[in-house]
TrEMBL record, chains A, B:
This is N-carbamoyl-L-amino-acid hydrolase. GO terms for molecular function: hydrolase activity, acting on carbon-nitrogen (but not peptide) bonds, in linear amidines; metal ion binding. InterPro entries: Amidase_Cbmase, Bact_exopeptidase_dim_dom, Peptidase_M20. Its cofactor is Zn(2+). PANTHER family: ALLANTOATE AMIDOHYDROLASE, ALLANTOATE DEIMINASE-RELATED. It comes from Chelatococcus asaccharovorans. Transmembrane segments: none annotated.
Amino acid sequence: MPDASTANLAINAERLWSNIMTTAAFGGTLKGGVRRLTLSEEDRRVRDWLVARAQASGYEVGIDRIGNIYIQRPGRDPGRAAVAMGSHLDTQPTGGKFDGILGVLAGLEVLETLDEAGIATEAPLCLVNWTNEEGARFAPGELGSEVYVGHVALEAALACRDAEGVTVGEALSAIGYAGTEVPGARRFAAMVELHIEQGPLLEAENLTIGVVTAAKGQQWYNGMVSGRESHAGTTPMTLRRDALMAFAELALAAERIARAHAPDGVGTIGMAEVSPGSRNTVPGEVRFSLEFRHPDPDHFGRMRAEMRAEAERIAAARDVTVTLDPIWSMEPLSFSPDVAATIAQAAAARGLPYREMTSGAGHDACAVASAVPTAMIFVPCKDGISHNEAESATLKDCAAGANVLLHSVLALAGVSHHD
Amino acid sequence: MPDASTANLAINAERLWSNIMTTAAFGGTLKGGVRRLTLSEEDRRVRDWLVARAQASGYEVGIDRIGNIYIQRPGRDPGRAAVAMGSHLDTQPTGGKFDGILGVLAGLEVLETLDEAGIATEAPLCLVNWTNEEGARFAPGELGSEVYVGHVALEAALACRDAEGVTVGEALSAIGYAGTEVPGARRFAAMVELHIEQGPLLEAENLTIGVVTAAKGQQWYNGMVSGRESHAGTTPMTLRRDALMAFAELALAAERIARAHAPDGVGTIGMAEVSPGSRNTVPGEVRFSLEFRHPDPDHFGRMRAEMRAEAERIAAARDVTVTLDPIWSMEPLSFSPDVAATIAQAAAARGLPYREMTSGAGHDACAVASAVPTAMIFVPCKDGISHNEAESATLKDCAAGANVLLHSVLALAGVSHHD
């Protein structure tokens, strides 16, 4: 049950929006986007801003060896593990104002709102900025959260190099964020990450809140069709082994399979290169990328098996060779039903229209979920556009998400009535 | 009816083959192909070889202002227009030993065979090397033959520049082939061009001779599909406007249309570029080439109309924009039925298995046909491969083609029995 003394508590929407616009200047681009690559000078400036703000409020600030920033507000019961909030401050090379940083600034807003209202929580609250979620300067992404849960070894993470050969370790030292805390040492009771949806569903259905209960499994392939080059004018259709036409059939098969596993299945071919690439030559080879995603392990497995069967069928029917090389995969992941239920309850109590949904993209929450009960809150972004300078979200939706975050962590941490 | 005194006349197959191998050294590549770009030093060398050979036999050699070489053997009746044979000596940048030059060397072989046998023809015979059939160094191709028939103005042709800015006129002077004869001044009664098929039909049907009765019309398009870029993980299939999937449907529609206009219709997409070309982004745009060819004007028109209808249907169904920009076309062309019948008769009389067929590619004969009764002889090439260093044909087939050429021009020019 919501607590009577906090039921009407709300974050300061104007202050949240002002913080979003202020931080968008750290790496701000002419087109209204943000270029704030991990551990760059722009990243240092936004980190310094966040730390200064935290210190001004008297919160404890810890930095771990991979540069994750922990901003902790104490609870009444120091024996309880903290309830975490957070996301990331880094962006894509031509990113937007909301991806990642919304979850961090909303967490800061939660802490400051509680201070102003004089509300103490039973468990401590901890706002986290995870290092290098994007993976744009240093690969792989979700580096700080993966190191936190122990999926990636600290030494390996520190040795990752950018295109200029600079390591993560060197970059951390250069901007003053090579901390001393051991990643994973700080235990959390739960984590809630607020993020823009980066997809069009909430907007299309006129909903404000997505309660993210799962993340889609992902299977990436490098594909190739090998047929036979021949003269476009002199080779009859019946004697062709046209790699491009076989590829076209494969593409439509992938689409058909994804559609058959509706509504959550997706299948995408983002890249294709046609050889030899001459107007008058029947293509002999097409190389392409293919990926499938689905949140349900059974559907996910069937999509992959169906694609293999289609590839074999098309190869045989057209006398071409089709290879699908599985280069990376992530199994479907379920977030904590308890944390998700808490989020749904917070949305319902605020009268905010919401739906359960799955995340199609990877997030720090996906990594953290393997060690900590975790779920996510999505808010709409315009036209589903993200990883783009045109990325856009409204003050109203950002504030609604921050309020759901506030009441979710209050429920998870517990509110004291002893004051 | 075949003339008794010439019915068993045959060219010297070994000499023809030896000439093919000798001339393949002018621009010969390590992989066994030939790089002999129009009006290059290699082209000069092969031209000089041909002219020296012609002069040694006492033939008249004329060079016109576009560099076409005419090698004429006199007839008994100087009032009759010459019967022409010929093709081209230039090659693609990585071409083979047979494309073009077979038709020139077979013509030389015809002249020398008649000399050795002491046979005179009523009409003169004229072997022609047409300048720049390939269009690889200077565009467009079939330049010498198009100037001959007046489709391309001489001054415009001489002003064409290669990638280094050298004009055709400068290149002709540099290799000593800027002649003085006016292109088109030398009239022909007929022309026969022997060429490798550059396609797989004769080989597939185990035939030796193709009697080429027509050349396919060609329609070239630059195509574009514009959809909407979106996130591959978060955009449901139902909300996508995927340019690549629309392109795949267009490709298969083009294939279906070409197949429906069997056996002569062909449709090819040789080039496609996908934007933005990121593994995790639903493509927003695909640019591609498309071409259709058919020898029959009615079918040719219907193919184009059907493709337009398919493009409109797919664009509407997928909420994308499809544009098909017609950048070049050539109407279907019928060769002379009389010249084709003469070729068929020559093949039949030699017991060579033949079929009528259409040319899918452009040739000098296509240009000349607008002014002179013309047809072509095709012989098989291995796997239909051409414009490739692996281009290959057999001594037996080359000789068969040259014998059909011999007896075709004897029939067209008439044989004298007064000696």
